[in-house]
Structure formats: C-alpha cells, structure tokens
Task: structure prediction
Amino acid sequence: MLISHQMNAALNQQIGYEFGASLQYVAIAAHFDRESLPELARYFYRQAEEEREHAMRFVKYIVDAGGRVEIPTIPAPQSQYATTEEAVQKALDGELTVTREINALVDFTFKETDHTTRNFLQWFVTEQLEEVSSADTLLRIVQRAGEQNLLHVEEYVARQRHRSGAALARADETE
Ligand SMILES: [Fe+2]
Ligand SMILES: [Fe+2]
Result:
C-alpha cells in the first residue's frame, strides 16, 4: 500500500465531501428548476456531475494506491432558499470549504512526506481556483442584476455556456 492508513482515512473523508458537494448542487439546481430559471438549473446540475467525478477520482486513486474505499455518511444538503443570492452564496461557501479541505489534505501529505498523494492532489488545487472564481463571479452577477432581473443572469449563464462550448469545439478541431 502506497499510502498510510491515516492518509487512506483522510481521502475517504474527502470522497464524502465531494459527494456532499454533488448533492448540494443537485438541491440548488432543483431549486432553480422549480423557479423556472433553466440556465441556472442546467449550470448547477452540471456542477453536481463534476463533483461526482471528483469523488470518483478519489475512489480510483485510493484503489490504485492499494487502499480501501469506505464511503462515509453524506449529510443532507440544504434544499430551501429564500433568494437566488442565498443559493449562489451557498455554492460559493461550499467551494471555499472544499478548498480548505483540499489544502488540509496537502498539508497532511507534507507531514507524511507522501509525494504520491501530494502529486495527485495538485489537480484539485488548480481546480479549486477555477471553482471559487466562477462561483464568486456568478454571485456578483446575481447581486448586480438583483432578484427582479434574473433573466439577465440567465442570459449571462447561457452566454458563458456557449462560449465554453465553442472553445471546446475549437480544441477538438486542433487535436
Ligand atoms: Fe469538487
Ligand atoms: Fe467544486
């Protein structure tokens, strides 16, 4: 086994955090779906899928490292939101929490001189910068638009989606 039992336990805990983030995003997406804000709903359903993929990266890593996957209890997500701002703030707070969790894992790899796990975690360090940045931007857009002008937010999210879709298509062409 390439990782210690303590590291194995810490990584199992992170699987729980990532699945927890996934469920939280499903709850946020369903809230927007119900409010007839389809672009915001779509954006957060997609985020939910990404968080599941994050959890699966940890699963695969633990197996590869010869450890044992034990998925912890996942707490229920918050499902009700009074405003759009509250829901998006919840998303940003969640990403900030996950960033602290990833940082704590990296700290632990230093303590254990576990270079393999530290290397594995670098992808998440980079990913969290992106996740916090996009959640922060979305929150500012929501605050600027205000609860009466959420169609502006919908247009912004749709534009971002088409832009990243076009960028992906260009990357495919140049491959
Ligand atoms: Fe994540
Ligand atoms: Fe995330």
The chain is about 80% helix and 0% strand. The two ends are 37 Å apart (CA to CA). The chain has one domain: 5-174. Residues 115-145 form the longest helix (31 residues).
